Amino acid sequence: MTTLLTINGATRRFGGLTAVDGVSTTVAKGELVGVIGPNGAGKTTLFNLISGFTPLSAGKVHFKGRRIDGQKPFRIARLGIGRTFQNLRIFPNMSVFDNVSVGAAGMLGVNAAGAVFGGKARSEAISRRAWAALEQVGLQGLAGELAANISYGRRKYLEIARALAMEPELIILDEPAAGLNDTETRELAAFIKRLHGDGMTVLLVEHDMGLVMGICERVVVLASGRKIADAAPEVVRKDAAVLEAYLGVEE
Amino acid sequence: MALLEVRDLHVSMGVQEILHGIDIDLGEGEIVAMLGANGVGKTTLMRALSGIYRVRGGTITLAGEDITNAPSHTIVARGLCQAPEGRQIFATMSVRENLVLGGGPQGLARIDEVLPLFPILGERMGQAAGSLSGGEQQMLCIARALMRSPRVLLLDEPSLGLAPKLVKLIFDLVARIREQGVSILIVEQNARGALRVADRAAVMEGGRVVLAGPAAELANDPRIVEAYLGGHVAG
Amino acid sequence: MAGTSPAMTLESVDLEDDWHEFSGFFGPNLPVAMDYYLQQLAIGLSLGMVYALMAIGFTLIFGVLNVVNFAHGEVYTIGAFTGLVVISAFAPPLIVVLLLVVAVGALAGVGLERIAFKPFRRFSDEASLKSRAMREATLMSSLAVSIVVREAVEIGFGSQFQTVPLDRLLNSPISLGPITIVSGDVIIFVVAALMLGGLQYVLKRTNVGLSIRAVSSNPLGAKYVGINTDRTIIWTFAVGSMMGAAAGILVGLYYGAIFPSMGFIPGIKAFVAMVMGGLSSIPGAVICALILGFSESIATIFVPSVWADMVAYGFLIVTLIFFPRGIFGGARDRV
Amino acid sequence: MSDRLRPLLVVAAVLVLVLGVVPAVLGAFDRSYLYQVANLALIFVLLAASMHLVTGVAGLLQLGHAAFYGVGAYTAALLTTEAGLSFGWTLPLAGLGAAFVAVLVALPTMRLVSIYFAVATLGIGQMLYLVMLNWVPVTKGPNGILVTSGLTLFGYDLSRPASAYFVVAVVTLASLWVIHRLSHSYYGNALRSLREDDQCADAMGLDTVRLKIESFAVSGFFAGIAGALWAHTAGYISPADFSFPQSILILAMVVVGGLGSLPGAVIGALVLILLPEVLRPVGDFRNIIVGGVLFFSILLMPKGIIGEVSALDLVRRQLGGAWRGEGTKAGSEVGWR
Amino acid sequence: QQPVVKIGYQLPLTGNTAQYGQDFKNAAEIALAKFNASGRPFKVEIVFEDSRSDAKEGIAIARKFVDDKEIVGVLGDFTSGVSMASAQVYKSAGMPQLSQTASHPDYAKISEWQFRNITTQAQEGPYNADWMVDQGFKKIAVIAEQTDWGQTVVSNFADEVKKKGGEVVFSEFFNRGLADFRPIITKIAREKPDAIYTGFFYEDGAQFLKQMKQLGLTIPVYSTSAAYNQKLIELAGADAEGMHLTATFLPSNPAPQVQEFVAAWKEKTGQAEPGQFPAQAYDAVNIMLAALEKAWPEPTREKVRDALAATKDFPGVTGDTTFDAHREPAKKLTKAVVKGGQFVAVAD
Ligand SMILES: Nc1ncnc2c1ncn2[C@@H]1O[C@H](COP(=O)(O)OP(=O)(O)OP(=O)(O)O)[C@@H](O)[C@H]1O
Ligand SMILES: Nc1ncnc2c1ncn2[C@@H]1O[C@H](COP(=O)(O)OP(=O)(O)OP(=O)(O)O)[C@@H](O)[C@H]1O
Ligand SMILES: CC(C)C[C@H](N)C(=O)O
Ligand SMILES: [Mg+2]
Ligand SMILES: [Mg+2]
């Protein structure tokens, strides 16, 4: 198994607060890793460190053997990291299809000269990718709809589709199941599993234990910015520290 | 008569009607859960109740007074508070200021009752609300609604984005608040949790209430189990 | 200075005498160069105060609605013309003029809000709230109102400078050691300081201020906590426009220049100062207005005055390069 | 109608209208005034369209557009008077000159967002205006420049309003075609995503800074082209033609027509140039009326006469710009071809 | 029914410079009424069009005038910029254009169709330079507005001063409508000039004079005829006292045409005495009318042009106007000073 992502002593401070504190872990190609932890544990911050939205205070991040910390988000994205956001960030005044096309366009590259004089090859490639991503999440029926007009649950899939249209090697999902009901969460779980089955490497933050424990191969637990566990779900589930910090005593 | 009475409520967005005649009763000290898939109009209902959306038809009565299409500030003044979807906190203001605003004329009078529920907020009092983590923002949103000692509390997906420990805490909290005589209307995707604490529940589909009844009954209704509880009967 | 100008006819001009008076102006003791810079600084300060006076109301209104009010300059003009009409009608003392102007300014602000801003709040769907087109629509509606007002004033009064009774001008010189200022500088300083102090107190210390800041931060959220957002917005417009109108008459009397497009240049400068300051910070806007005033007068020392604005705008660009969200602006929302 | 044919027909219709019907009708009146107004309208159509790209599509509120128009006009005028170049040369060079200046000023300001960017462009516009006004040795300052050669192409003098109309119309149409390709394509989608949420676009692998600079430069280029057209058709330029109120006028065109909508920008420009001319008989009140019309149009159609959504739909259907997803039912057109 | 001859007048009737255009219109209407009442064999109609001092409007108006076959001559525009842009149209279409104020050095050079009846700084500058140097001022500061006209104010004046052995110790421009002159005034003061020569209109002039006095500066100020307007004194009050300037028009001039114009003006507008610019417009209209008369009975554009070109010693309110071979006027200049709230002539 080849390592795709290596996080080495990642640290991020905000003033006096250390949101992420010396976290190290690796993600191998094809893995499905869950990240859990109490609210404010630093999960989103960790994702922002990986995708370049927040600079590291200390530590290193490597992707495919290349150091990526300190790089601009779009460069990191182009290396093959797609992401979604905890607070849904779609492009509300664009159609569903156009939203997704941006993911494809970002990876395939667009420029002014190409847009004016270029042949159809590039735009068809973008179209096909975007369409494939939409089909993957089952939104093709809403392709022409304005994104602001579709429901919350579908926006979640839209955001995922947009990341998929990038055809990334690693996809980071920040709380994809938030706001979905149990049935929808199951569908999502199945969807992520399928994605994983197709060879995608997934890094997933989620508070829905059913989802995390059900599909993840490995779970990283953060609390107060520190990694307190990093193991298979069955192990983590019984870890005293994790129970104490995060899960609470289940009935 | 119920504390909050909704009769034949119609709400439209532009030309499109979203709620086609909703009836709900919320009794004194009662908890009612609203279930329904994404996009059926639960949030639209909640917004209409708080006076954010205009009502095209039907009536809303709070403690015998007609509040249909009353401005949102008078509705809040009459004791109907909401922790809305999307949090709607004041991102550029500090956590403390958010809470003061939640308290309205009472200001921070109830801070000592609210803060212990969410100790982490106590540590973040001076921080800009927008820089909080997702879950912290959700806590702030709920805490803010509690600052005013509401008579009717509307919670739109309160457990969204909260860690499991806190989800449990939220539902316990809902039960506790009811003890103080507050009536609660709660919209939840976590149907299991909501049905456990609720007295009654209603299921919405396509802008209508399609099923209503005592929560315990609904929790065992095969249709509910199939659609919202992932096929397993709630424990 | 002699009352009847000695330079009135050539015959009476004694060059030697002139020399004498001239050096007296800069004071006999300080080196001339020093006086010169001090005088330029004093002028820069008073220029800056003039911009600040306008920037305060402008920033207040922007802070609440997050839209540029292109008609603020016209409120300023309305203030000046109201004052002029009042003065020529029954010549009351300045304070009475100010009160009347402020009242008219409040009316203008409320009217403006009703006409140019409120109608656009009827769109509450997400696509509209997040749409650039809707944002720029209010900008345009205020621009359209400003065009109509300016043209109307022009038709009513003509576009020339209005004649201000000379004894009402706020420009009797006051000598402070080597430098000279005028009475208007003092009045403008006091008024601006009062406005700034008052607003800071209201915004930071009172519930009204808290509501205003809440509406500016998240108007929808403000509804959920029971704030009467419409009323808050109207009040803000009323207060901001009162300040704009007061600025108009004060600056009008200060320069003795009242004409229909008088709000244009101070409007631009106030806009620039507000943004340099970080949009929602009134002290920030005031400080940046002072910086703009200073940079204009100081620039004149070193370059021809036609280039002075170049320095002021250069300052703007440099500021924004180093502080992309203004000097006192907050950070961007976290991802 | 066959889907292949329709776009061709639409293009043909536009060409016939602009290059056939309009000149024929104007010619029938035998009034050079009408041509003059038409030329002016076309120049402002081009200006509005170029601002549409940066303000409507990429969402960067541009408050200094007239300055780039001016840079183009000055480049053309100076190349004509100082270097003796004819219109055939000055036209592209004016565009390039304006684009060059646009890139220069874009470099330091592209990190700015929203109103901060708007004010930066306002400042830059004013600075460029001050340069035109005060850099007397080069720009002749307030004296302006008498442009000695009018519209000449391949040695033919095309300065008469009627022939100038064709030159202006062809240049404007060609430019509109380019702007159409840019805004109605995946490139346009990328720019729109900047407008909607630039951080998110960044996460999609878009080099947001480069895109902003690029769109700014292209927009500057076409403003420069418009400037060259103005310089050669007017014959005399001075800084006043490129001052801040002109920027606001162009912005008003784009907003009234529909921010984000290219057909809207075109219509907005036509309305705001033609309306004051039509209202001439009204006398002193005409500008009040223009202001009133502006106000009511915004009030009733805040998203513009042709809003972005309907404009995109129109282009997709009528101009055959749409790419059809494999699984879609016939007629549901989505992406860009 | 008398035949009617039409002329066009393009001028700013709205916008920032509307006050000037409105004045021109009043002056033109006075001149026209008098002409039409005087029993000539034809009547004249003036078509006024509002250019807003905007070149793009000016050009459209020019086209409109050119299209109207009945229009045989055009007056205006106000600013040189708009006049010159419009002049391109008149040049190519062959329409005589007479501007009452355009003072750009190249304006009349555009073609044989452009005329102006305002004195240029080529005449006024040296005249004032001589005047000032003769008064014994050696070190002179010069400021002027940053317009084409202001440029000529400075250059023509400075050349002559140097020739006469004087020294221009300071020379700067300012943007029109500058609110605060104090930074420049302070800067001027540092150069310690003997006198200041200024190129401004009355609004800027009033601001300058007031602020100069505020700063306690008492250096003699000289200016051009452009500052000649009663409003200058209204706006600046006592601070205007002692300002010297040249004029071609003095309302106090006892010449009958002047007194007639002043009286008609007061009656029509209800304002005080007319300033320099309305007088310019009044003369321009009359010169045009005289040219029409000369061209009658067949007033074609060519004939009107030729008639204009032949204008010699036309007795206007701004003095006698003769167009030289370059269609430039030469006028007699008068020296004036503000004294007791009035412009009064200064004996040479
Ligand atoms: N820009 C910032 N400024 C100050 N504090 C910040 C900032 N960003 C994050 N924090 C703090 O860092 C901590 C970690 O935040 P983060 O969003 O990573 O948590 P999280 O694990 O994603 O939580 P949740 O599950 O609630 O989303 C929080 O306590 C938050 O308040
Ligand atoms: N402003 C709006 N404009 C147009 N349509 C809207 C608007 N708001 C809501 N809708 C539509 O109304 C329907 C109901 O939306 P609502 O947000 O009430 O659903 P919900 O039940 O709360 O769903 P969720 O579980 O996703 O929060 C959806 O189909 C949505 O697309
Ligand atoms: C500046 C203008 C208004 C007038 C000046 N005489 C000119 O020729 O332009
Ligand atoms: Mg998070
Ligand atoms: Mg909802």
TrEMBL record, chain A:
A GO molecular-function annotation: ATP binding
Pfam families registered for this protein in UniProt: ABC_tran, BCA_ABC_TP_C
Superkingdom: Bacteria
The keyword Lipid biosynthesis belongs to this UniProt entry's keyword annotation: no
Keyword Nucleotide-binding found: yes
Domain called ABC transporter: residue spans: 5-249
Keyword line: ATP-binding, Nucleotide-binding, Transport
Family annotation (InterPro entries): AAA+_ATPase (IPR003593), ABC_AA/LPS_Transport (IPR051120), ABC_transporter-like_ATP-bd (IPR003439), BCA_ABC_TP_C (IPR032823), P-loop_NTPase (IPR027417)
Record-given protein name: Amino acid/amide ABC transporter ATP-binding protein 1, HAAT family (TC 3.A.1.4.-)
UniProtKB/TrEMBL annotation, chain B:
Pfam families: ABC_tran
UniProt GO MF annotations: ATP binding; ATP hydrolysis activity; branched-chain amino acid transmembrane transporter activity
SUPFAM superfamilies: P-loop containing nucleoside triphosphate hydrolases (SSF52540)
Protein name, as recorded: Branched-chain amino acid ABC transporter ATP-binding protein
Every ABC transporter domain range: 4-231
Keywords in alphabetical order: Amino-acid transport, ATP-binding, Nucleotide-binding, Transport
Protein's GO biological process: L-amino acid transport
Lineage: Bacteria, Pseudomonadati, Pseudomonadota, Alphaproteobacteria, Hyphomicrobiales
InterPro entries xref list: AAA+_ATPase (IPR003593), ABC_transporter-like_ATP-bd (IPR003439), ABC_transporter-like_CS (IPR017871), BCAA_Transport_ATP-bd_LivF (IPR052156), P-loop_NTPase (IPR027417)
Entry's family note: Belongs to the ABC transporter superfamily.
UniProtKB/TrEMBL annotation, chain C:
Name of a matching Pfam family: BPD_transp_2
Listed InterPro entries: ABC_transp_permease (IPR001851), BCAA_transport_permease (IPR052157)
Keyword Ribonucleoprotein carried by entry: no
Subcellular location: Cell membrane
Record-linked CDD domains: TM_PBP1_LivH_like (cd06582)
Protein topology in the membrane: Multi-pass membrane protein
Keyword Cell membrane: yes
Positions of transmembrane segments: 41-68, 75-91, 138-159, 179-203, 233-258, 270-294, 306-328
Alphabetized UniProt keyword annotations: Amino-acid transport, Cell inner membrane, Cell membrane, Membrane, Transmembrane, Transmembrane helix, Transport
Lineage: superkingdom: Bacteria
Residue stretches in coiled coil: none
Main location: membrane
PANTHER family: BRANCHED-CHAIN AMINO ACID TRANSPORT SYSTEM PERMEASE PROTEIN LIVH, HIGH-AFFINITY BRANCHED-CHAIN AMINO ACID TRANSPORT SYSTEM PERMEASE PROTEIN LIVH
Family membership noted in the UniProt record: Belongs to the binding-protein-dependent transport system permease family. LivHM subfamily.
Full protein name: Branched-chain amino acid ABC-type transport system, permease component
Originating organism: Chelatococcus sambhunathii
Lineage, uppermost ranks: Bacteria, Pseudomonadati, Pseudomonadota, Alphaproteobacteria, Hyphomicrobiales
From TrEMBL, chain D:
Entry GO terms, CC: plasma membrane
Any one GO MF annotation of this record: branched-chain amino acid transmembrane transporter activity
Compartmental location: Cell membrane
Matching InterPro entries: ABC_transp_permease (IPR001851), LivM-like (IPR043428)
Topology relative to the membrane: Multi-pass membrane protein
TM stretches of this protein: 33-53, 60-80, 86-107, 114-136, 162-179, 216-237, 249-275, 287-306
KW Cell membrane (keyword) present: yes
Signal peptide annotation: none
Alphabetical UniProt keywords: Cell membrane, Membrane, Transmembrane, Transmembrane helix
Top-level taxon of the source organism: Bacteria
Key word Transcription present: no
Database matches in CDD domains: TM_PBP1_LivM_like
Protein name: Branched-chain amino acid ABC transporter permease
